[in-house]
Amino acid sequence: MSTANTSGIIIKCLGGLYTVESPDGIYECKARGVFRNRGISPCVGDRVTVEDGVISEIADRKNCIIRPPLANLDQLIFIVSTCEPVPNYLILDKFIAIAEYKNITPAVVITKTDLGDSTPIHDIYGRIGIDVAEVRYDDESTINAVRKLLCGKISAFTGNSGAGKSTLLNAIDPTLNIATGEISRKLGRGRHTTRHAELYKLSGGGYIADTPGFSTFDTNRYDIIRKEELAGCFREFAEYTENCRFRDCAHVCEKGCAVVEAVERGDISVSRHESYKTMYEEAKQLKEWELK
User: Fold this and answer.
1) 94 to each of 78, 206, 279, how far by Cα in Å?
2) CATH superfamily of the 70-219 domain
3) What is this structure's pTM?
């Protein structure tokens, strides 16, 4: 099969070899040394040009996350279980903020709904316009709802280890046969069954990346959000931020802050605002060299 000149998407990176899916086939390629000289590494999700079995061009990325390296994501889907492990709203809000910062659509899928109450998750995230779905493996319509969410898009699943990412992926498309791990009760987190990022082509259309559990990573590995930019990553703040008494309001506890008043009225979730305040304090501690 000739690879004189074709374009496609990188679906797997392993040991300096890149698997590229193109309209006329799947190729294993190396990348031109010029990328390394420019400090660029091809990554899963990149749109590339292949010439004579070598990646010669990488198209501009619309977004990129660093760890695991993934480019051109349409959506980040957060798998949240009602229990075992219980939802960690701060970690979830940190990752949703990064998705918003990078213009990646966030969505939430709830698992283990037979073991715990999913209402709080719907109340917090559904009310701010984030798609929230819940899966029950005895109800195929709930799996179909997630398939519909994925159709035609490049998506990544992430979430606390043990929340059931691999189990859900296998239910969505049994041909994937992704390895699943049991929860380690001793450690309180799942075993690390996912070793690298890889895009799986779904039979119903679209691609999905299974990624390591986000509880194992510092969000700064994904990106650093300056304190001045943080409020813009909480979508429900938008209608209130312009009405604050002070132009440079931090929206933490200031008297006359329209965001704080909205929290007090119940128009903004207390949980989300608590996450924001924690993240704002962390952003204040960042040194200038960390922001470069």
Assistant:
1) 11, 26, 7
2) P-loop containing nucleotide triphosphate hydrolases (3.40.50.300)
3) 0.84
